[in-house]
Write a sequence for this structure.
């Protein structure tokens, strides 16, 4: 098992280098002269040149690339904010917990509602429950979350005055944004759960369970769910990516001081290192998350688990 | 005298799809006594499996629907029972072995747990006791008890079928339905599995319905035989009656298409043509198109059920005195 | 044995009778027939056609110009003359929504076409040549997939700069890996089919094989994913415009309308409500149509 995790970790390395490369290329394409931006407005030509040499921006692109890569690997150097002059990584790490809380609660909401709803829809296929779940998930998928955020503010803050519309100071502040981020994810999870359950319910081993005299409820919980869980876990991992993307927009709607808002503010200020640093960090988190999902996957599915242990056994035999 | 163990009367099962209706079982009636082994023989798609599933009320609904008929177990109609009652019967009084051992076990549960499940459901025993009984059962079907905690994918097809049999027999059912239990297995394994099933059936004093398309298996295993064609029982009788004095042209054709050791034939004679599409059954005898002995009378009416000798029934116009087609021409 | 007549057999016979009249049918016709029976997908199709008409003839359909300002009626709640109200500059929201359909549909459709072309070629080549080529292409695609779609588009849009064409390019590029994967897996399945072996046997060139045999047979999943891709393209475009990375004022664009309406949310609900409903409607309809197409093109996939 640890061998599998190690293997997946090693596979992660080229992907992350690739992500950094993409970010570097995007950095190169950015409009404006980074040295001038860093030196600040109204800086003299000499000052700009000094910054340029200091940052190594006068070197050939390939050297810059290697330095950039080395900077990230050794110091986590994602560049410096034009606006504050503070390293991007420092500023991102300050905001990371907020974004992770938001993403975490949203995941909980979307899994906590989406999975049971999908199971219900599959169990009572073609009934009112199914139609309601399908309708709900259809709306959820179609609703852009930045608009849903605005609507939530309109309804729950402006008209009903139940919940605060901006800030992130405690659980009361978490509800609306988490709901906003989680909705489309929940919708996708509902749909996946439903179709996965429908697929599993048709399998022969479900019939075997019924032939044993098992109750419908136990058949669903003990036999169908365990097998249906595999694609559901995969989709949760993938959805985490759109959830992070959604968090960027939602944070800006609710004025939540997380990575998303940090990036969006950077867009308005043309603070490019911050945008790219944010993209790199979120891609990194997403990759780690998918790694965790893959490992989790191996724990759910005994076929995956023994794939590695039998290999070991075979190796022992040949020795 | 006690009630018959199983009495199926005029059972009709359809699968209702959006734009067609599959008439899978059409008016099947038969009876079974305790201790008996009944073989149900027929081609793929003749409705054998649907018949078997409806005895346990496992036909998926929708799209399946029992249109009419009863299935009486000890005189009680399974089809009108409450769900609770039927659950107490499944796995305890009647259990089933399915065709494909590769798919009929849950891939994410250990085989031991899957055997234990049925014991815990029906026998009033502690978890520890259930483990002991499940291990016993596993050893009884020829699998070492230490493999209790392994998963289905770690077993071969034949071994998995043994596990399925262990599940089916764990609560010593009165009736065991085996739906082509060896079709998916290698020929060498087939004999082992059949032997084991016969032995266990005798040990546990279980009645059995053996669904197969292999007449050889029937000859070795069964007391009674039912021949199914297009959802109907076309002929029913003891093994002796069917094998030595087959009456229905389809049954006759089946035997003629078999290789035989006693007789020296140059070529086997397959039955020409195909079974009619179960969504488009004709209004007359459904074997008409393939029947060598078909006559005009066969087009006119539904074939009646006749009894050429006690306990031997045939559903055929010809056998009830219709005239040969040649004679009419 | 006689057919038993049940309500179900009668219904089946009716449907069969209706369809028998025009048989035999080509697969495309059969798919169209299945699609027509799907009411939700047909309704979605109608809405999409309406949106398309709006996108092509906004000047004729919209009661006002997209940038026609009238301060006298700024912040007017919906009433007869301004059915969806007006914004802070007194512009008619309905007219701006109609004009905005042009932007959203162009971006949605063109980004899918461009993404499909690039991704399709990469995917087909990877699947066809296999081995090293496949490895390299797909590893690069994996790297792109490691960046959440929205963030990738955001990054590209930020470095390319604002405007319709840059936004389009950003979304198209972020679509490439997904389409490459779909086309690759679809070509892989077909590659082992016998008709391809037959074509190879009679000496068809590689290019001919890819374009004449493999791609057309992989069309069903491409059409389905393309339709759904339009929905996500529209969503992405509106999101980026909402953040100020896409279409710039005074052009009418749904996401941007929402963005500029944000600050007036407390007193002018119509300004944020209607553009949002439109986005939702457009995305929902393309998704519904995509689902419908999937069921129609491949009945086996129906859940």
């Amino acid at each position: 098992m640890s061998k599998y995790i190690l293997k997946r970790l090693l596979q992660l390395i080229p992907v992350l280098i690739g992500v950094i490369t993409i970010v570097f290329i995007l950095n190169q394409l950015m409009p404006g002269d980074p040295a001038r931006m860093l030196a600040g407005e109204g800086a003299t030509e000499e000052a700009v040149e000094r910054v340029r040499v200091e940052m190594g921006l006068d070197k050939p692109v390939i050297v810059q690339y290697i330095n950039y890569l080395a900077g990230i690997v050794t110091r986590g150097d994602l560049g410096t904010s034009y606006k504050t002059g503070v390293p991007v990584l420092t500023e991102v790490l300050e905001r990371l917990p907020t974004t992770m809380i938001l993403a975490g609660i949203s995941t909980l909401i979307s899994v906590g509602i989406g999975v049971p709803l999908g199971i219900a829809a599959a169990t009572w296929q073609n009934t009112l429950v199914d139609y309601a779940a399908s309708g709900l998930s259809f709306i959820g998928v179609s609703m852009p979350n930045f608009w849903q955020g605005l609507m939530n503010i309109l309804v729950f803050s402006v008209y009903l005055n139940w919940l605060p519309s901006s800030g992130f100071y405690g659980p009361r502040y978490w509800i609306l944004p988490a709901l906003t981020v989680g909705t489309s994810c929940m919708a996708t999870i509902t749909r996946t759960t439903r179709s996965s359950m429908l697929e599993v319910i048709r399998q022969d081993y479900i019939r075997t369970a019924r032939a044993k005299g098992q109750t419908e409820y136990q058949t669903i919980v003990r036999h169908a769910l365990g097998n249906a869980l595999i694609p559901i876990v995969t989709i949760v991992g993938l959805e985490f990516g759109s959830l992070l993307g959604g968090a960027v927009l939602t944070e800006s709607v609710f004025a939540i001081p997380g990575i998303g808002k940090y990036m969006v503010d950077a867009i308005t200020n043309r603070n490019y290192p911050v945008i790219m640093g944010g993209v790199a960090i979120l891609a990194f988190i997403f990759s780690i998350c998918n790694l965790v999902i893959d490992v989790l996957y191996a724990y759910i599915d005994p076929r995956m688990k023994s794939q590695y242990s039998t290999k070991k056994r075979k190796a022992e035999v040949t020795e | 005298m006690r009630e018959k163990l199983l009495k199926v009367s005029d059972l009709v099962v359809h699968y209702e799809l959006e734009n067609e209706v599959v008439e899978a079982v059409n008016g099947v009636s038969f009876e079974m006594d305790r201790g008996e082994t009944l073989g149900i023989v027929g081609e793929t798609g003749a409705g054998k499996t649907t018949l078997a599933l409806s005895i346990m009320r496992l036909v998926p609904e929708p799209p399946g629907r029992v249109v009419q008929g009863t299935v009486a177990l000890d005189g009680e109609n399974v089809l009108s029972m409450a769900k609770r009652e039927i659950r107490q019967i499944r796995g305890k009084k009647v259990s089933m072995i399915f065709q494909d051992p590769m798919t009929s076990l849950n891939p994410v549960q250990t085989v031991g747990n899957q055997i234990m499940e049925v014991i815990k459901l029906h026998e009033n025993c502690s978890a520890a006791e259930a483990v002991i009984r499940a291990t016993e059962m596993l050893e009884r079907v020829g699998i070492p008890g230490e493999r209790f905690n392994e998963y289905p994918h770690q077993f071969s097809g034949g071994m998995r079928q043994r596990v399925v049999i262990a599940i089916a027999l764990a609560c010593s059912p009165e009736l065991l339905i085996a739906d082509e239990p060896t079709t998916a297995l290698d020929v060498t394994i087939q004999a082992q599995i059949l032997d084991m099933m016969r032995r266990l059936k005798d040990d546990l004093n279980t009645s059995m319905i053996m669904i197969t398309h292999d007449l050889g298996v029937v000859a070795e295993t069964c007391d009674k035989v039912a021949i199914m064609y297009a959802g109907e029982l076309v002929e029913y009788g003891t093994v002796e009656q069917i094998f030595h004095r087959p009456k229905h042209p389809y049954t006759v054709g089946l035997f003629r298409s078999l290789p035989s050791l006693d007789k020296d034939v140059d070529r086997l004679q397959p039955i020409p043509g195909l079974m009619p599409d179960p969504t488009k059954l004709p209004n007359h005898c459904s074997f008409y198109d393939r029947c060598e002995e078909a006559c005009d009378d066969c087009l006119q009416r539904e074939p009646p059920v006749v009894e050429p000798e006690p306990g031997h029934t045939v559903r055929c116009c010809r056998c009830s005195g219709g005239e040969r087609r040649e004679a009419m021409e | 044995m006689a057919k038993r007549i049940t309500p179900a057999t009668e219904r089946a016979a009716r449907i069969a009778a209706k369809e028998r009249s025009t048989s035999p049918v080509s697969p495309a016709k059969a798919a169209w027939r299945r699609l027509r029976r799907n009411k939700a997908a047909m309704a979605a199709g109608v809405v999409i056609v309406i949106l398309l008409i709006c996108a092509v003839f906004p000047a004729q359909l919209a009661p006002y110009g997209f940038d026609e300002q009238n301060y006298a009626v700024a912040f007017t709640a919906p009433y007869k003359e301004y059915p969806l109200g007006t914004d802070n500059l007194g512009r008619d929201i309905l007219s701006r929504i109609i004009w905005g359909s042009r932007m959203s549909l162009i971006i949605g459709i063109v980004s899918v076409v461009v993404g499909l072309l690039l991704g399709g070629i990469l995917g087909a080549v990877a699947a066809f040549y296999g081995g090293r080529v496949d490895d390299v292409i797909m590893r690069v695609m994996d790297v792109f997939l490691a960046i959440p779609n929205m963030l990738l588009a955001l990054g590209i849009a930020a470095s390319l700069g604002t405007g319709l064409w840059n936004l389009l390019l950003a979304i198209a590029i972020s679509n490439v890996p997904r389409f490459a994967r779909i086309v690759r897996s679809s070509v892989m399945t077909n590659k082992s089919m016998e008709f391809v072996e037959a074509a190879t046997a009679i000496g068809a060139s590689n290019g001919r094989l890819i374009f004449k045999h493999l791609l057309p047979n992989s069309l069903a999943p491409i059409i389905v994913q393309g339709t759904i891709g339009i929905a996500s393209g529209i969503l992405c475009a509106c999101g980026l415009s909402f953040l100020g990375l896409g279409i710039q004022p005074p052009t009418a664009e749904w996401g941007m309308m929402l963005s500029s309406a944000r600050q007036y949310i407390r007193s002018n609900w119509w300004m944020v409500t209607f553009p949002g409903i439109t986005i939702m409607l457009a995305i929902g309809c393309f998704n519904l149509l995509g689902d419908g197409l999937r069921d129609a093109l491949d009945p086996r996939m129906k859940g």
Remarks:
- The two ends of chain B are 52 Å apart (CA to CA).
- The interface with chain C takes residues 12, 14, 16-21, 23, 26-27, 65, 67, 230-232, 279, 281-286, 302-303 of chain B (CB under 8 Å).
